[in-house]
Write a structure and sequence with these properties.
Pfam families: Glyco_hydro_9
Strand order of the largest sheet: 1-2-3
Radius of gyration: 21 Å
Largest sheet: 3 strands, antiparallel
Strand content: under 5%
Catalytic activity: Endohydrolysis of (1->4)-beta-D-glucosidic linkages in cellulose, lichenin and cereal beta-D-glucans
Number of domains: 1
Number of strands: 5
CATH topology: Glycosyltransferase
Shape: globular
GO molecular function: cellulase activity
Distance between the termini: 22 Å
InterPro entries: 6-hairpin_glycosidase_sf, 6hp_glycosidase-like_sf, Glyco_hydro_9, Glyco_hydro_9_Asp/Glu_AS, Glyco_hydro_9_His_AS
Helix content: 40-55%
Organism: Oryza glaberrima (African rice)
Length: 504
């Protein structure tokens, strides 16, 4: 973000007012990034900060003669699901691209004076989180021609056990999409993730960036040429966990990221978007952004990033208007305490993704001196920032009727019974002996607090009435996920950066 653009956005923060609760957003950002280290699979690096985790899944892929070690466990189990993992990498990358300039890059006494302690290397850690996922996706995309590996482990077998990643003895089967068994949704999201990650490393590691971009282009061509949903090809192992309801949005989403990542080919991808947008559903208004549905994010992204695609502004404005209470077009549901609420499990995934979009759109509006048109009402960037802060991010951190932080380890009161195998059980360091599949269930059902602190994990969150039951069996409310944390990294970076500007 340029200094001029940053000042415009910070000015919008000032206009939004300072009536909301005060939180240490930099500390929350540190923890949000740290969570990804707890979700790592594979051989852990020397700088691993979550010391209660150890190596796991080292032979992943061997059943198919390929190396698929690494990557992330998506939530509280030990499966590596490709679609949510790729979305996680895309959103981590977007967080760095959009708000990386608001994260300190190196440790220094100056930053320590602002944030407390000895300073932090938030941008370095965020890049490391991107690379860990991108390394895995790169292997999954290039191991075999015309093949994309999209999952490791049979989820039904995995869910029959409650065991640490380090003790896994359930089948580590691998699943892939091919020309005969297509998966344009998971392939499209993988292409988007690789393209977005290539932008993150364009300056700091050009050769790695080029390798990511080459793979992104190949995977996109594969996704577009062999169209079909992986929910049809692999329904027995991806449903009902991560069923995809359409692959059209992922194709446009991937083309949008490739347009941004490929300066020499941007016109090619812009032409693709122009030619395929209508057929792929770009004209349909939708009001949800998640690992499964990227339509609204794609339209906002294209409007702000792609020359000649201002035609999407009306659609993006409709989405924004649907979120603003009192605006013409408002149709969202909020809890009595002010939290955005969508029906279904793990509501916080929608909260964090929405907050991220509100802030990125506010940044765009500020830099272009524009507003959102909600009928006769003009909605300013400051309103969007206030909505993202007071009713979304601050709610997560503790400004809610329960006075509870829904980020583990942040604040005085937070969930202590997270639906997460590794957190609930004694670590290998403290209990070297193997804990078997069935033996582990006593930790799942135990009333005792977690044995290990899953710092930074944002759980599923409260229900429509702001009620939350802190119990491991309550996976809908107590399970964290990488795709919940990923967009929150960007949102917290925004508010941490604004706080930095205002600190004496």
């Amino acid at each position: 973000m340029s200094r001029a653009c940053l000042l415009l956005v910070v000015a919008a923060v000032c206009l939004a007012g300072r009536e909301a609760a005060t939180f240490n957003y930099a500390d929350a950002l540190d923890k949000a990034i740290l969570f990804f280290e707890a979700q790592r699979s594979g051989k852990l690096p020397p700088g691993q900060r979550v010391a209660w985790r150890a190596d796991s899944g080292l032979s992943d892929g061997s059943a198919d003669g390929v190396d698929l070690a690494g990557g992330y466990y998506d939530a509280g189990d030990n499966v590596k699901f490709g679609l949510p993992m790729a979305f996680t990498v895309t959103m981590l990358s977007w967080s760095v691209i959009e708000f990386g300039d608001m994260m300190p890059e190196r440790r220094s006494s100056f930053l320590g004076g602002i944030f407390g302690g000895g300073g932090v290397a938030q941008l370095d850690n965020a890049r490391a989180a991107v690379r860990w996922g991108a390394d895995y996706l790169l292997k999954a995309a290039t191991a075999t021609p015309d093949t994309l590996y999209v999952q490791v482990a049979d989820p039904y077998q995995d869910h029959r056990c409650w065991e640490r990643p380090e003790d896994m003895d359930t089948p580590r089967s691998v699943y892939k999409v091919t020309p005969q068994s297509p998966g344009s949704d998971v392939a499209g999201e993988t292409a988007a993730a690789l393209a977005a990650a290539s932008i993150v490393f364009r300056v700091s590691d050009p050769s790695y960036s080029a390798k990511l971009l080459d793979a992104a282009q190949l995977v996109f061509d594969f996704a577009d040429k062999y169209r079909g949903s992986y929910s049809d090809s692999l329904s027995s192992v991806v449903c009902p966990f991560y069923c995809s309801h359409s692959y059209h949005d992922e194709l446009l989403w991937a083309a949008s990221w490739l347009h941004l990542a490929s300066p020499e080919k941007k016109d090619v991808y812009l032409s693709y978007i122009g030619s395929n947008g209508l057929a792929l559903g770009a004209e349909q208004d939708d009001f949800t952004f998640s690992w499964d549905d990227k339509r609204v994010a794609t339209k906002g992204f294209l409007q702000s990033r792609a020359d000649g695609l201002q035609l999407y502004k009306a659609h993006t404005d409709n989405y924004i208007c649907s979120l603003v209470p009192g605006a013409n077009g408002f149709q969202s549901q909020y809890t009595p305490g002010g939290l955005l609420f969508k029906e279904g499990d793990s509501n916080m995934q929608y909260v964090t993704s929405t907050a991220f979009l509100l802030l990125t759109y506010a940044k765009y509006l500020s830099s272009s001196a524009a507003t959102v048109s909600c009928g006769s009402t003009a909605v300013s960037p400051s309103i969007l920032i206030s909505l993202a802060k007071k009713q979304q991010v601050d709610y997560i951190l503790g400004a809610n009727p329960a006075g509870m932080s829904y980020m583990v380890g942040f604040g005085a009161r937070y969930p202590r019974h997270v639906h997460h195998r590794g957190a609930s059980m004694p670590s290998v360091r403290d209990h070297p002996a193997r804990i078997g599949c069935d033996e582990g269930f006593r930790y799942l059902h135990s009333p005792e607090p977690d044995r290990n602190l899953l710092a930074g994990a944002v759980v599923g969150g409260p229900d429509a009435g702001d009620a939350f039951a802190d119990g491991r069996d309550n996976y809908a409310q107590a399970e964290p996920s990488t795709y919940t944390n990923a967009p929150l990294v960007g949102a917290l970076a925004f508010f941490a950066g604004a706080h930095k500007i205002f600190t004496p």
